[in-house]
Amino acid sequence: MTVKFHGHAVLSFNNNDTDVIIDPFINGNDLTDLTVENIKADYIILTHGHNDHVGDTIEIAKSNNATVIAPVELAAYAEAQGVENTVGMNVGGEGEYDFGKVKFVHAFHTSSYTDGEGVTHYTGEPMGLILTINNKKVYVTGDTGLFGDMELIAKRNGPIDVCFIPIGDHFTMGIDDAAYAINELIKPTIAVPVHFDTFPPIKQDPEEFKNKVNTVCQVLKPGEAVQYS
C-alpha cells in the first residue's frame, strides 16, 4: 500500500491501475510538489467544500474525465460546474470502486465553497474517510476538531493501519488534541500529520507531534509516501 502526501491535505494513491487523488488543492498551495497539468486521476475524493480542499477539482475532473466522490451537496455543486461523473455520498455510507472502498464518517468542522465571483455555496457536512485499500484501513480524518466518536469510528472500521490527521490548530485540532486522538481514541499503527504550515495561522512543528504520540509517526515531505508493509 502506497499513499503519497502532497502538502496541506492532498493525498494520492494508485491501486488496481486506478489513480486517486484526495482534496486536490494545488494552485495556491505553495507546499505542493504537484502541478494541475501533470495530475492523472480516475477518481477525486473530497472531504468537504472549503476552497483549500476542493482546490482544482473541477479542472482536474474535466481534463481527466475523472469521477468525483464527495458529500452529496458538494457532488451536486461539481456537477453544476460541468463535471460529468459524480457520486454523492453521506455520513455512514460506503461505496466500492475500482481502487477499493470509501466510507464517509463524521468530522467536526464547517463546509462551504466560495466561487470566483465571491459567492459562497453550501456544500453539505464535512466528513472524514475510511479507505479500504488491499485490506489495509486508512483513516483520513479530514479537517476536524477532537471528538469522542473517533474511538467508535476506529473500533467499527479498524484496526486502523494508517491515520492522516491535522495538526495545524486554528482551523482544526492542534498538536495536543491530535496526539490525544491518536494515543487514546484511534490507536493506528502509523500516524501521519497533515494540514500544517500552509498558511501563517497553521504553522506547527510536526516533530513535536511525533514526540507526543505513542505509535509510529511518519512526517512526510510533499511527494513522499507513507511506508507500510
TrEMBL record:
The entry's keywords: Hydrolase
Q: Does the keyword Phosphoprotein apply?
A: no
In alphabetical order, the GO MF annotations are: hydrolase activity
Q: Where is the Metallo-beta-lactamase domain?
A: 7-195
Q: Which N-terminal residues, if any, form the signal peptide?
A: none
Q: Which domain of life is it from?
A: Bacteria
SMART domains cross-referenced by the UniProt entry: Lactamase_B
The record's listing under PANTHER family reads:
UPF0173 METAL-DEPENDENT HYDROLASE MJ1163, UPF0173 METAL-DEPENDENT HYDROLASE MJ1163-RELATED
Member of which family? Answer: Belongs to the UPF0173 family.
What is the protein name for this chain?
Answer: UPF0173 metal-dependent hydrolase DFR63_0482
Q: Which organism is it from?
A: Jeotgalicoccus halotolerans
